[in-house]
Design a protein that fits this description.
single chain, alpha/beta, 2-enoyl-CoA Hydratase, Chain A, domain 1, Rossmann fold, eight-stranded mixed beta sheet, six-stranded mixed beta sheet, 28 helices, about 50% helix, about 10% strand, globular, binds coenzyme A
Length: about 700
Amino acid sequence: MTTVTQQTIDRVLVATINHAPVNALNQAARQGLKDALEAFENDRSLVALVVTGSERFFSAGADITEFTRPAQPPSIASLIETIEQCDRPVIAAISGRALGGGLELALGCHLRVGTASSRYALPESKLGLLPAVGGTQRLPRLIGPVEALKAICSGEEIPAKRALELGLIDQIAQGELIPAAVALGKSSQTVPSRANAPITLSAQEREAFDQEAARLLKRHRGQEAIDACVQAVRAAVDGPLEVGLALERELFAKLQEGAQSQAMRHVFFAERRVGKLPASTQADFEPAATVAIVGGGMMGRGIAMSLLDAGLNVTLIDVDETAAGKAVQGVAGQYQRAIDKGTLTEEEKTARMQRLTTAVDIAAVAPADVVIEAVFESMAVKKDIFQQLGRHARPGAVLASNTSTLDLNEIAAASGRPADVVGMHFFSPAHIMRLVEVIRGEKTSLSTLAQALDLTRRMKKIGVVVGVCDGFVGNRMIGKRSQQVDRLLLDGALPRPIDDALTRFGFPMGPLAVNDMAGLDVAQNVRQSRGQVFPVADAICALGRYGQKTQAGYYRYEPGSRKPVDDPEITALIEKVSEQQGVQRRELSEEEILDRTLLPVINEGFRLLEEGMACHADDIDVTLIHGYGWPRSTGGPMFYAEQMGLKTLCAKMEKLAAELGDPAFEPAHLLRALADEGLSVHALSRRDLPA
Ligand code: COA
């Protein structure tokens, strides 16, 4: 089929983009649209042109895969210019999503009509870019600069009803889309587009815009794309369209070549590459319809919600009626909050709650296609549950454990059917966090693994396949940072400079504020079980300072507040511990703090690849970004390493290893080998799945 088809309905030419899967505007699509515009220009019997897409996608925008190649004409901008010169109306008829360049094309049309379920977004900032085909200029002119700035900087989708209220679209089609668009085309005269009119703001509106801009710049500090979006929208407020369009193009070109955008585009594709079994893999499974969850605590409830959202039937099993009832209330309460926020309807809540049942007897797992255990992290408890699951679950059902630290092989053995057992390590809160480490045990069958990955995908989560080792991929890597943080405190740093260094790097919170939030006793229990000693952390715990819950940890907290306040008592305590350990404290630079907290984490990533516990560098990048707040704008730890240069990384580590006498800085064999050969870690082919 040609990429853009043309059809005449009632003297209106309808040009339909057909470029599966998402109608990205690649060269063929742009050429097809140009041809349609020429056909329209040349046939004076036509009264209007309607541009439309598929049911799911008007268009997802520019073809991102073309970004690394020289641009081929015609450009989207030139199509919009041609549309603007038309003396008869050009109507965008939008079903599904209009994103990025797709929405910009629609904004360049004279009028827009959408279906009730259509959605609109300029998501370029998520790729470290800005909308570069007039989006930063026309959207503010259509919906006002404050709303436009919010939409452009968040990249979030705007549903049809809101788009109509804002003036982004002119009409929601009552009935079928194309007849509505044809009717609109026939009834409209031409039509200077509102999207090109100058913006005039009152002093008050101007102040509201400045405030919003300042808020966004603060929130996304260090993100070049957000700076650029703000500058471009400001140009729309301050001056004529052509000047704004020129600035937009200039800013885009700079961003596109910059490290942040390259990193964010890498993440976009990495997110889509992970969690896929090789095409050659023969894995038979029936997509699950019913899932039983053992354990109705926070984790079990979050998992239940993700499954209900994905349309599955869920049985929540807990020890007694009270616990099970509480779990259901918890789920209902979360849905109610979503209704209050306007992100869920009453009907959707009812439909989901109708698919949720409870039980107090583990035998209720019998009809389930998948059972997910989400109980307390104790080997004895989990083994007992898996023994019972082995008896009660139907043959062929997948038995998943939500362990975050335990040996999956031991749990699997207890079931008596280890081929059916897989780990699904969800992150809290499970209905929000997208990452799931899908743990392949020694005996996990391919169909079990495929079922777990399919379920993860259906929950709109990102499944990363990992092997069985202490801490799996994420916790094992981030654990290296915890060790270094304690040592930095001992050597001369204080909590605030460490947290500030890492938040400036891009983590949403510093590691010590995170520890205070999670509870210092939790980490201490884990350390004790492993025989690890962290002198500073142990001394803080010895005072009963367990973090926010005791209003004191690395920081102090005012009653009812979660804001960490520097505490002179902690400074004194840390200095005392250094003295007791015979460490001469010294000033530590931000660079040293970053190197000592980040490089061992990265090094562990290379070790995981070397051991086959992770299949590819992409998997590690995605895991740390989605599970641990590693900044997306750096592309993840392995991509950050590549951008630094593996040789430079090795040299830095060797220097630190010599200075500190710490083996954590000895470069992993794989890192050294790649650095010596001048090879890229991302270019290594995806390994066989870890087992
Ligand atoms: N250009 C090129 N390829 C694109 C694309 C784009 N703009 N948007 C999506 N794709 C590809 C994906 O890489 C994926 O390819 P694969 O099947 O080979 O892995 C395929 O289209 C389907 O995308 P996927 O994300 O798996 O489907 P989805 O239905 O979950 O989500 C989108 C669809 C469009 C919402 C999502 O892909 C997206 O956000 N795309 C980026 C949109 C964007 O930023 N546009 C502006 C570009 S500057």
